[in-house]
Design a protein that fits this description.
Strand content: 15-25%
Helix content: 25-40%
Number of strands: 13
Largest sheet: 6 strands, mixed
Number of helices: 11
């Protein structure tokens, strides 16, 4: 039987032949099912349907070092003085500094800063008449307030785009260094990536055909179909893959779920350390397959909590909304009856 006719007749390919009942694997394996994706730009609204063609699924032993990572992006970002003041409800301070810097001379700016300091005290509940009754104390407080405004004004000026590099170069002459405020900002979960390596060492002619068919499955499914265009290239999207972990004929409840993935790299090595083939068929005695995937669906608390069959103790309002769910164990997959 040719590889083409074998691939057309089978809905699933597996390696080795006894993958689902071999005690060496304890019935543990991965299933890759080819899917078509459609929908909008929101990863929660993507729709997936079984891709056309056969074989539509591949089963391989779970590789060593299987792990799961949950990524979140926290980035360091600088916050300009104006933005920081507004974010901290310091708009009044911004207006005061703007008024001070509008003066055309240093003497005028210092005078405006002193006036602003006195005005701040007035806003704090100290009326101008009450302040006048205690001139020495008032002067000290006004000077202190004015100096605070001047310092803020100086810091904002020193971090301005036009002066920041100059102040940085002159920091030793000036004796100070002004920097923008900095914060850690949450920028959402990340798209996860996965890499798995499989070493297929056929022992029978059927296993050699299956190994070759599995390589062709990933090579073909991960590539786009190109339309017949003269001046541009138009591609139909490649298939994506549903990745599941099984024990026997049931999806494992012990291994973290993975959302639908696209295959970003297929690498194949033939023949082992020293290229050798079988004498009768000249098929390689070993084929090493390396696959890289990127998850299409951004995870969130709803998806992670909803993949659990029991034990989710989060308040319902935090994850039981209309969020896309990762199917729980027993949620199904292709009929495994085709694997014999």
């Amino acid at each position: 039987m040719s590889v083409e006719s074998f691939g057309a007749a089978a809905s699933h390919l597996k390696f080795p032949e006894d993958l689902t009942d071999n005690t060496d694997y304890a019935g543990n394996y991965m299933m890759f099912t080819a899917m078509k994706v459609s929908g909008g730009v929101d990863t929660r609204t993507l729709k997936f349907a079984l891709a056309e063609g056969r074989p539509n699924a591949v089963c391989l032993p779970i590789p060593q070092g299987l792990s799961a990572a949950y990524q979140n992006n926290w980035d360091q970002s600088e916050v300009g003085g104006g933005t920081a003041a507004i974010a901290s409800k310091g708009a009044g301070l911004m207006k005061t500094i703007a008024g001070i810097t509008s003066e055309r001379s240093l003497t005028g700016m210092l005078g405006a800063a002193g006036t602003a300091g006195a005005g701040m005290l007035s806003e704090a509940g100290r009326g101008l008449q009450a302040m006048a009754s205690d001139l020495p104390g008032t002067a000290d407080k006004a000077n202190a307030a004015g100096a605070g405004v001047v310092n803020e004004m100086m810091g904002m000026a020193a971090t301005a785009p036009g002066l920041g590099s100059i102040v940085s170069a002159a920091q030793f002459d000036l004796g100070f260094r002004a920097l923008q405020q900095t914060m850690t900002s949450y920028s959402g979960p990340g798209f996860r990536s996965f890499q798995w390596q499989f070493s297929m060492k056929p022992l029978t002619g059927l296993e050699s055909m299956n190994a070759l068919g599995i390589c062709n499955y990933f090579k073909t499914r991960s590539m786009p179909a190109q339309s017949d265009m003269q001046f541009t290239r138009v591609y139909n999207l490649p298939d994506c893959f549903r990745v599941q972990f099984f024990t026997g004929f049931e999806e494992s409840p012990w291994i973290s779920k993975i959302g639908h993935c696209v295959c970003t790299d297929v690498s194949i090595s033939y023949g082992g350390d020293k290229f050798t083939t079988f004498a009768d068929t000249h098929a390689p005695t070993q084929i090493d397959l390396s696959l890289s995937f990127k998850e299409l669906e951004l995870l969130n608390r709803q998806a992670v909590a909803n993949e659990l069959t029991a034990g989710a103790t989060w308040p319902g309002s935090t994850y039981q909304k209309s969020a896309k769910q990762i199917e729980a164990p027993g949620g199904g997959g292709p009929d495994l009856g085709g694997i014999t």
